Amino acid sequence: MKEGLTWPQPRYVDSIPAVVDDATIRQALDHLGNAQSYRPYHAHAYRMSGWIYLARGDLEQAVAAFERARAINTAEPMIDWETGLVYEQMLATISQAPSTPLTHQLTQAILSAPNVSIATPFCKQGAPQTCYAGMTTLTMPYAGISDPSPFTYDFFFLHPPATARFDISVPVGQEGLSFILGFDPQARAWGSDGAVFRIGVTTTVGTLQYVFEQSVTPEQAGTGWIPGWVDLSPWSDQKVAIIFEILPGTKGDTTADWFGWANVILTSPTAARYASYAPLARMRAAWLDGGFNQNVLLARRDEAIRFGRIEEAQRWEKRALLLNSTVHAEH
After folding, report:
1. pLDDT given at position 299
2. Are 179 and 265 in contact (CB under 8 A)?
């Protein structure tokens, strides 16, 4: 690793290495793989692999390695810090990618739903189908992440069985469809059996092709947001209809199925894939688990200012803001 990687000089705690000899680094990964096979519950080999993958720009492999190291050694705060750095790189990629927000445009989609009224806040008199779709705002944490801080998103409510057909031309370079699945917290105790989320794509001359399907139990959805993404590269620069569909859960019962979609965005496939990791929430969780709270980050900012390192101080300031429970950045 010393021969194959180089570090910025001066090297700071948030410096990212670069590869200078890929053949040597591949040898290092082979050795680390052997170390992991002989000692699968020793964190250091996973941690070193994480640095190599980060240097190579393979952020998903880096996350997997660092998260494995974190799970093995829960008492080493620097592993938490380093894991957060990888998620920070994912966030940078997401923020730099082109994007087209679609959540609010879904209210203009062609709705297909039963002509039977149900009790929701969106019903218009004499139009039962309107009960099945609407726009609202929900606040909750991400599911399965240790940081319980809530994230607020505009939410396209789509009560099953219903579909929303949205016509669009897939922009070149924005073939990644990023989204979040959600379940309205106020309906969690009303007896839902879950839901099935599906996304289909069709052209004017083609047949409907489903590109995403995920079953969600009320227990899973009840813990918070669930991110996802699909790759629309086969339809790049084509006019298509994207079908957003929600079906009832395992029992076929639509009772209390207040499900829907949030943060629906067209972006690059890489950015959409990274967004499915919920990198902001996971970065916050890793750093807070390691004791790197807002006060710690602001102290590092102040230290950088004292030594005249203004760019470094700005990085610490930005991180401290992201750890503020009242600040939640959307893509």
Report:
1. 97
2. yes
Strand partners, 166: 242
Q: Locate 202 and state its tokens.
A: 């069709």
CATH 2.60.120.1060 fits 99-267, yes or no: yes
If DSSP codes are grouped into helix, strand and coil, which group holds residue 75?
A: coil
pLDDT at 331: 44
User: Whole-prediction pTM value?
Assistant: 0.94
CB count in 10 Å sphere of residue 173 = 14
Structure tokens at 278: 């919920």
Give the distance from CA 148 to its chain's centroid.
15
- Residues with Cβ within 8 Å of 132's Cβ and at least 6 positions away in sequence, in order, are 111, 113, 114, 118, 120, 122, 158, 159, 162
110: phi > 0 → left, psi -120 to 50 → alpha, else beta; which? beta
Q: Which residue has the tokens 């950045």?
A: 329
Q: Count CB-CB contacts under 10 A for residue 117.
A: 15
Give the torsion sign (CA, 228, 233, 236, 239).
negative
- Confidence at residue 328, expressed as pLDDT on a 0 to 100 scale: 47
The predicted pLDDT at position 323 comes to 86
Secondary structure (3-state) at 226 = strand
Average pLDDT per consecutive 10 residues, the chain (331 residues; last block may be shorter): 95 95 96 97 97 98 98 96 98 97 95 94 94 96 90 96 96 98 95 96 88 94 95 96 95 94 98 97 96 96 96 95 62 44
Q: What is the pLDDT of residue 325?
A: 54
Between CA 157 and CA 135 the distance in angstroms is 6
Inter-axis angle of helices 77-96 and 59-72, to 10 degrees? 160
CATH dotted code for 5-96: 1.25.40.10
Complete DSSP assignment for 242-273:
EEEEEEE-TT---TT--EEEEEEEEE-HHHHH
And the tokens for 244? 């957003």
* d(C-alpha 249, C-alpha 220), whole Å: 12
Strands 195-202 and 209-216: antiparallel
